[in-house]
Design goal:
Layout: H1 3-30, H2 38-48
């Protein structure tokens, strides 16, 4: 096998592997929930919690 053909074969094999890894990574990433920062989680907790009335005597 000449050098050029062998190099092309190696490059082609590597590109197939990287394409397979990337496509697999995309499939895995779809199931992963979006990252929410700590500050945003605190805001959401405050907004979603039921409001407690401050004037109980009224």
């Amino acid at each position: 096998m000449n050098r050029r053909k062998k190099i092309n074969q190696i490059v082609l094999a590597r590109s197939k592997k990287t394409r397979a890894k990337k496509s697999n990574a995309r499939l895995v990433a779809q199931g992963k929930p979006k990252y929410v920062s700590k500050a945003d989680r605190a805001k959401l907790a405050i907004e979603s919690s039921p409001e407690i009335p401050t004037n109980l005597n009224d």
